[in-house]
Amino acid sequence: MRGRVSTAERGLVDARLRAVRPHLVLIVLVGPLLAAGATLLGNPLPYLVIPLVLVLAGAWYFRSRLMRPRRWPVAAAVLGGLAGLHLGAMALWPLSPVTGAALGTAGYFLAVDARRRVLEPYTPELADSRVEVPWQARGDRGLHLLVAHDRITLAGSRGRFRLVRPMVALSGVGAVEQILVARRATLEVPGVGELRVTVTPGPAVRITVPPGQWIVPTDHGREIARLVARRKELAGVEG
């Protein structure tokens, strides 16, 4: 039977998302509005198209990625950086790199705070939402196990993981369990031989996927197992 999500459970996660909407609005509007203000100070009106495009692009992006908080900081940095470059170009050209870096950095940290408010602390209610929950691999800040409402993904910001992200639908996920790794090892990701995960001694999560298994070092194996099980239940996936 398909699992049901209570109104209270949805409400807790919805409250987190509502709380960060002002952050996202600031990210989308402040930089382009400053750039538009600088454009109006004696520059041709057609240049106002650029801030307008940035607002529309930012609004579309954060609306479409609302359930993927992990991606917010990089997008905010790009949006702020572009707005800052335009601001500098319209006001004081030599300061364009400075304004770009300043607004990009401000957007990044504002989005980091918004992401933290949605994802931390991790509570079971997040399993009953559609929010993609990232779990960082222990000892590798660039590698994450992403658990979405319909799939799991290994995503990284270094090496080949920047280009290849193994993904498995929840219907293809088998057993998920916490294990204890005795010694350091570098393991191939099954089916994607050029990808390797370095597993450090300590707790890890083992996930059965076709055509083998993923082993990711983490101290949160039990939470991940419960999260995947709950989302499979909500999706009507057996096993």
From TrEMBL:
Transmembrane spans: 20-39, 45-62, 74-95
Keywords, comma-separated and alphabetical: Membrane, Transmembrane, Transmembrane helix
Top-level taxon of the source organism: Bacteria
UniProt name for this protein: Uncharacterized protein
Source organism of this protein record: Actinokineospora spheciospongiae
